[in-house]
Amino acid sequence: MEDVIQKIEQETDLHFFYVEDWMKQSKVTVNFKNTPVDTVLEQVFEETLLNFHLLDNSRIVITRSNIIYDRLPQGFFPDTTGVAVEQPTASTKYNPVFYNKETRSNTTTETVYIGKETQATGSGYFNLSGRVTTHETGEPISNLAVLIKGTEIGTVTDQNGQYSLRLPAGEHLLETRSFGNEDILTRVVIYNDGVYNLKLREDYELLGEVLVDSDQAQNVEDAIGGTENINVEEIKNIPLILGERDVMKVAVTLPGISTTGEGSAGFNVRGGKTDQNLILIDDAVIYNPAHFFGIFSAINPFTTGDITIYKGNIPAQFGGRLSSVFDITSKDANTEKFAGEVSVGPVTSNVALEIPVIKEKSGLLIGGRSTYSDWILKNLDDESLKDSKASFYDVIAKYHHNFNDKTSLRTTGYYSRDNFSITSDSLFNYQNLLFSMKLNHKLNEKNDGSLIVSNSNYNFDIDYESDFNDNFTSGYKINETEIKLNMRYLHSAAHKFDYGISTKLYNVHPGELEPLGSESIVEPLQIPKEKGLESAIYIADNFKVNDKLLLSAGLRYSHYAALGEKTQKIYEEGLPQSEATVIDSIQYGKNEVIETYGGPEVRLSARYFLLPDLSLKLSYNNAYQYIHTLSNNTTVSPTDTYKLTDKNIKPQRADQYSLGLYKNFDNNMYEVSLEGYYKKSENILDYKVGAQLFLNENIETEVLQGEGRSFGAEFLLKKTEGRLNGWLGYTYSRSELKLDGNYREQIVNSGEYFPANYDKPHDLSVVANYKVTQRFSFSANFVYQTGRPVTYPTGKYMQNGIEYVLYSDRNQFRIPDYYRLDLSFNVEGNHKIKKFAHSFWNISVYNVLGRNNPYSVFFVTEQGEVKAYKSSIFSIPVPTITYNFRF
């Protein structure tokens, strides 16, 4: 551009005054002939922030952003004489932008100029937007207050660090406020729309110890109760099995969340079945979040950024499950420099790498875990275990790209695989595969949204080999694809609306059986596929009634359609479903609607401040679930199958009520909560005695649907600061089922309520960490649980010369109670700032007391006698040493 100016000076008598650096930032290509110089300059400067002013016939001053005025417009000063003054015409009317230059000369406040001034600028409003990141790592800073000093104008940055303000032209003082980052004050002069990005340094204080928590009173202030947040960084000290840092095992120590036993996959939340939990990794469903029968979690802690668990009032944007939502979000990669974290243990290793792709804009996160546990099995004294196999691995990759301050893209891919064969002729393997893509876009300062596309796949295979020519291979697969649009509208300080729409397509391959080898006598079997379409629309509002009362109200309408191609049997109404009661069979074509279900789902919760740090929360929600798990909940096998709702199996439905008190003490150092709940369920799927669940084409003849109820109270005491920190969680809960009908085979336990397989009334967890110094600490984890219900044989009888076993009512007895104590010693590396990596050692002992906790009790008949046996996972103390380092 400077060449253009010099060329004009050579061809004319004009002389320009300007700052050379302004000219070096732009290049232009122009072609003029016999054109006035002002027309030339207007076109040359059109795409820049530069303006020009003709001082006289030979001198031109170039300015950046602002315009030089040599006269004021007519009517600029108010008339005080009372004589009417002629108003300027539209062609001559302009409004200069003024700012107080004198005050700027006496301060160090930085001044920035936004946009390019025109003669109409002074009467307009313009958009100022940008992105706020950390100076050290380039990571976005969310929930940062961006304010205009002396006014009520302000906003907060979103999760991508983006903000947007609409301001009148002129001078403004822009300030930022946050915890953990410096506060800055900048003078901005607005001439037009523009972008102003900020980089903030971390705010350090020379104190002995400082804990900064921007959400320290969130548990008291939020409207939604029954919500848990897990800090992934803090759980590294908790002693867990074989030194594996496990975010899902930590969740089990929180009130209201339990498992059926040690080594079990799945979670029971507030008395719900394991299939009633929606577990998401970056908005994609993971069906089996466990490795090796639930001993390890399938969630990589090194790549996980945030975990929020909703077990009370589930937000309206989530649906399809009755009990809970585990919303797991992986981290964004560092966009400034290469970073990573590595863990090496006795049976597992873990690595996570953060790779900048485009500085300050995009990065790639890659994580992987694997086990090498076979060497343990081969060195056991038990000969039957020496040929056993057990291995798993998982990988995750996430790429994020910030196109600008309004638009960003995040994509995640995840894959896990397990292989095992324990004292049997069968080789089992199962896989999770999921993908998600999320496009975030901010329309304006009040509206933003996300478009999400995800796909999830889960399948397992069984290879069986024996000496009797009955070798076979068998498999199962479920696949779902979902599209969601989530929108947010910030109507005002009192109303914040969330709304959206979603649709999900299920494809289920219920199973197949194929002969393995040419000599196998097994007959092939293929169970027909199932398909279903689940859709929903929702709207929710956070309404601040006054300083004490906050409401969160949502309405979701879900709709489900069972689709062909499929043959559906029709059973005689009022009679038990069996082969004897089939009255018709209907063939449905591809994608033809077989049956539809649906209804409204209410999500309502309220928070009321009894005191500034004591709140009362009340909530109600109901939900529909259109997918069922076929499992008896007493086996550690991962071969549970899923059944879609159709004409003969109705969707599950539940209503939940909860009431809780939340209180913080001593400047939020202590958190205390007490919450009670009651849940009523319908169409809960259970199995008949002796049911064949796998590879059964007519599964409706093997199951029953009945009522369920669960109720309980949850208590949590948490200390967040100090040398001694941790929490104590206690849950009293009951979960019961009722299977009743007009016929004997529909009735269980005389049609009365009986304990569910996962009913465990008392559940106590204590997690404690004691920091001796900044580098050395001790941790302890204690768990007590009531034994799980079980059905025992209570006698024998003879009929027609044959001896039979008489069993008790279903789940009338319980296995022994479960308790376990774990201890660990943690050593941090030295805290030098300039070194390649920061290390961390964990030395732990799992099950210090050597308690032989039974997972299940079962009975076999040997030589005419009924004998009881119990199975357990870890019956002795298990020591572990793990080395971690981060760079």
From TrEMBL:
Gene Ontology annotations of biological process type: siderophore transmembrane transport
Subcellular location: Cell outer membrane
Predominant subcellular localization, coarse grouping: membrane
TonB-dependent receptor-like beta-barrel domain mapped to chain residues: 387-848
SUPFAM superfamilies: Carboxypeptidase regulatory domain-like (SSF49464), Porins (SSF56935)
Domain TonB-dependent receptor plug: 243-321
InterPro entries per UniProt: Beta-barrel_TonB, Beta-barrel_TonB_sf, CarboxyPept-like_regulatory, Plug_dom, Plug_dom_sf, TonB-dep_rcpt-like
Keyword list, A-Z: Cell outer membrane, Membrane, Receptor, Signal, TonB box, Transmembrane, Transmembrane beta strand, Transport
Ranges in coiled-coil conformation: none
Membrane is among the record's keywords: yes
Membrane topology: Multi-pass membrane protein
A single GO cellular-component term on record: cell outer membrane
Listed GO MF terms: siderophore uptake transmembrane transporter activity
Family listed: Belongs to the TonB-dependent receptor family.
Database matches in PANTHER family: HEMOGLOBIN AND HEMOGLOBIN-HAPTOGLOBIN-BINDING PROTEIN 1-RELATED (PTHR30069:SF29), TONB-DEPENDENT OUTER MEMBRANE RECEPTOR (PTHR30069)
Name this protein carries in UniProt: TonB-dependent receptor
